[in-house]
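We modelled the chain as a single entity of 1076 amino acids. Its sequence is:
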Amino acid sequence: MFIRSLGRAAGLTLVASRCFADVTWTGGGADKNWSTPANWSVALNNPTTDRVVFASTDTSDTVAKNMDADWTVGGLRAIQNGGTHILNLCGRTLTIGTNGDLYVQRASSGAAVLVISNGAVLVTNRIYAEQGSYLIITNGATLGGPFRNVYVGTGGNGYMHFTGGSASGGVFETGNIQIGGNNSEGRLVISPGSITTIRVHTNFFLNSTGAAGKQRGAARIGWPDPARGNQWYLPYGVNIRIGSPSARGRLHVHYITSIYDGGTFSRLATTGGGQFEAWLSELIVSETWGTENGSTGILDLAGMDAFWLDAVEARLGTSVSNGTRASRAWVYFPAGTARFDRVYMGDSVNAGSYALLDLSNTVCAISQTLQMKTSGRINIRVWDRPAGLDLSNDVSLVCQGSARITVTFNSAPGPGVDPLWGIRQAGNHAAELGSLAQSGTILLQKGSFAGSNDYKTCVFHDSGSGFTYAALVTNTMTVPPAVKAKDISVEVDGESTIRITPADMILAVYNPDSLSETNRTISCPGYMGGAEQPYIDFATSGPLPVTNENVTVKIYYEGGVTAQDSAKAVFVPIAAPVLTNVTWQGLARNYAYLDRREWKWGANWVGNRPPSNPTPATVIFEDLDALPSVAKLLPPVPNAGGVATDAWTVGNIRVGNLSGGHTLDLGGRTLRTSGEFRVERLVGSGASYLVCSNGTLDVGSQMVILNSTVTLHNVSITVPAQGTVTVSSASTAVFTNGTSINGKFLKLAVGVSGNGILDMRQATVRGGTLDLCDLQVGGGGAGSEGYLYFTSNTLQTIRVASNFFLNSQEPLAGMQRGAGLVGAPDPTVSNLWFLPRGVNIYIGSPSARGRLRVHKDDSSYGGTKTSRLVASGGGVFEAWLTELTVAYTKGSNEGNPVGILDLRAVDSFFAEADSVSIGEDLGTRGTRGEVLLPPGTAVFGTLTMGRVTNPAPLGASYAILELNDTIVAVTNSATLSDTARVRINVYGNRASGLILPGLPSVSNGASVVVTFIQPPTHQGLHYGLKVAGRVAAALQAATWLSWNDSAIGGRALIYEYQGNTYLGLPPSGGTVFVVH
């Protein structure tokens, strides 16, 4: 940027001739000194605000550029296509101005290298080493700051080396540092003695940008240690300081927010010695989003001499969003103190995930949340003084699945230490921590040390100190059992009594010596006499018994040992309903004598308020209370106007659990949605399913079933005229006895993006007619298979106004192999699929034609699949079509797709189609199509049969058109490629067969075979092939045409009659030209 140019444009007079310009080294002088003007594109002033540029000119691995005086410049940039620039400071100091950068990057290819030696560089703004380039501080050079920002390998790989050089005073101080990230690898090489302190004021990022949308990368800092397999460690004694009490920073070791294949690795590890002090808003070690897979972050501070960490939140080995991520984190802390508000560890979805927090004589205080998902592990190693987890009284401790906390006591308590604890929590939590210990979630163990047999591990509450301990104590100490009671808030709705038992109010039990339990009691509150009994019946028909008096639960053990605790049982009216989205949690039934599964109870919903009736919002069922054996009940309730109703109207229903399932019992009532009814496993690979029974389901817009199994039993389903039903993405929908569905709506799609099954064999379509605009079974995506089961009791007629697609989609692009099957498999015919007997099919109309496709795709995906539309007997087939396609593929890798349209068994047949394609293969693999027609009439505009470009063996492809007493008239043209096979069977009751507008276009290998089955029983022409025009000689010479006339005494001839040419029996009168 040239200010002088701006000055001329604005009519200004500038004193300086130029500023903020690039001055490029040319090396054209007699020496290599900075002070020689001929070495620069423009003489370099001193001081100057110009930026010094080393480009591709005069690079050398041996010859240095000599800065022969102290110099101040506006910036320094090395940008070249490969090659090295050596900057010899000659014992001088190079100062880069306040707004200037030290920047190394390649121009377009190769690796740019800048070597700085023998002097000092002072930078207060930014340092960059990007795009496959190296910044090397060596030969006694020093780099001083403090810097504003340091970027190493954040926009293409970058490397910064302190090898033989150092940070000024040993202190590397910066506002922010980012090493790696954004799909790049960064390395900061620190040789022993080059840096003694790393001071970062705000963000210390290793393979992280601190923002969403960045892809995988890698980060290394320190020095590859050959004694440790060349793993990277900071040299011995390096101090690390991040943030301050008044201005917290962030430490990220591998934080990827991307949908990019992973397997990347970042680490910050110390050899030993030094001090660590950090005040952080967040500590993240290996957190991934999307489908990032196999990422690893390591923070290893175990060898440091002093340790202090205060962080608001830590996320270790966590994964966010969906997909197949596997995030792995290893975190090691030394003796010292760590304090957190919140700690989140591990992942409960991906088995490859892992999160370890290793505390070696570390006191780790957590005030609000410790959440450990399945892959979370905490290892606590304690020697002679207390250390480990130090939890507040109110901390939320959540351990999911196989998450585990292991405490190992490696020595006896030191002098004056009583107790030697590995976990401490303020307040009395003996029952909660003890139950975790008895379940194995907390593992307390002794190491091997002298006198270990005199000690045992246990959990106990010490009333004197007010803490609960997981500790090492002497064997003589008596550890009592413990019980923790919980407050309960019970909704009431006019019941006369509510029965509460001890189990309803017990949160946790700890029985360290496994004593035999003899009894459990609950005491009435004082206003009821306070007596102990097996349960309490609270009267709730009058004023609600809300009391501040405690209810006490008590457990009796053998030997007269007891454990007891008190809590409150409070009774409240049902919470007011809401008009916002609600999610089921099913907590209203968490009582021994209260089976409350109805929607009306507030405790059954997250937030403890039920949905209003009606509500425009979405009612959601996810992982909470996903127990299919427990039905969620739809009770009769007043609507918003206070009028009792048997219908509940909501905006949408969404079922989307990871695994397990839900059962909705409509209780004979109506569940109505103004929007959609959607069942979809949102993430993961579990088996999500829904059972809905006993009532009416009135869907407002669409019914969608994805990645799930849905069973509807005794349900009347209504979908609006413009609505759709979709069953896809590895889903199954079964409509069982008593279930019915209205027949008229916009679209039914089964198996259109992933496999889908809709089984209606035990259900009925009301009115017997399935009347749709579009029916799509199979097709869409990669290998989607659709299966639509029904019987003649389910429906008698299918009427499709527009598209009847079996393994096809619109648009066709991207649709890979699949299958589409309708009807049911017949076990007597090798379980091949057939339409039920008597089912009628109508497609399109004379004024609005439709399309029929049986296996048409655009694919490059291997495999062999079959789609069938086959009649088993009776019924009507009538179609008015723009397109009839049976077996078509366009891709280069589709493996022998098969399409079959077999209507030979129908009672009545008529079809009119503008274009017909059978067995057409535009790719390089075999395509097999069969169209088998019954007596009746068809009119085709164009007929195209067989492969076009397929070089595969002939047997891999075929196209069959079989006419059985059928009249097929082609009005425009017929093309028969080499795999085309036309079979014409002529019976005696009438002339039938193929009527062509002229000679077809026939490739070598195609064939037309006419078989006369019976002698004629009618008057007039009797033929199997009719061609417009006088082409008898051409037909007689055609090698593709043959016939079998033995049933009519060998009398079939090719003859011309009234301007047409026939194959058959000539008429008895008129002028006939016969070709012999």
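As a brief sanity check on the tokenised model: The mean pLDDT is 90. The longest strand covers residues 275-289.
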